[in-house]
Amino acid sequence: MARNGKLATDLVQKLERDIVTGVLKPGDKLDERSLSERFGVSRTPVREALQTLAGSGLVATMPRRGTIVASITVADLIEMFEVMAELEAMCARLAARRMARVDVEKLLALGGECDKLQEHADADAYYEANVNFHEVIYAGCRNSFLERQTKNVRNRLAPYRRLQLHRPGRVKKSNAEHAGILEAISTGDAERAAKLMHQHVAVQGEALNDLLAIVPRGYLEPLAS
């Protein structure tokens, strides 16, 4: 039983990562048999993992479709981005006050990696580096509860945040925004770090309209439960 629990936990992490990185997209079917074959485990930990992911809203069980990567309504999308901006701003504020120098150096290195990737305008490669950049800030806030909650909302929004970077010019704009956040955190300017991070994550007005225009069918309702 304990082994199945450990396997289920590992599967949750792997499937979350697949959703965050776009390997699995909203509307994709998650078949127990296929997943058990892919990961070389029995169906029991797969079933447990899917139940955990359903509890966090990342997957949903649909009539006649089975379990799929969850979609959300437009209203949910707007509300989640609003919450995400506040959570990330809080992480940045605390990170500017608490982040160790070694972690600041790591953040600077990731900023450099994002610099290189944005030159190639490869939105998907940049997105993965962007995830790492933000996760260092989450960890740097030194508040494990806040870090977990921020990651939970980030995971739920991952497919949509990834799509944002496919808007013309967004990768370069995102990278320029990183530079300001980096400076504020590295100099300990907590309020500026929070303000810049909020602006970086928030999606409203034209940015929201542009995002909705490029969201594929299936990412939004009526697929979501």
Automatic annotation (TrEMBL):
Identification of the protein by name: AsnC family transcriptional regulator
SUPFAM superfamilies: GntR ligand-binding domain-like, Winged helix' DNA-binding domain
PROSITE patterns in the cross-refs: HTH_GNTR (PS50949)
Highest taxon of the lineage: Bacteria
UniProt source species: Thalassospira alkalitolerans
Gene3D superfamilies xref list: GntR ligand-binding domain-like, Winged helix-like DNA-binding domain superfamily/Winged helix DNA-binding domain
An annotated Gene Ontology molecular function: DNA binding
Pfam families per UniProt: FCD (PF07729), GntR (PF00392)
InterPro entries, per database record: GntR_C, TF_FadR/GntR_C, Tscrpt_reg_HTH_GntR, WH-like_DNA-bd_sf, WH_DNA-bd_sf
HTH gntR-type domain boundaries: 5-72
UniProt keywords, alphabetically: DNA-binding, Transcription, Transcription regulation
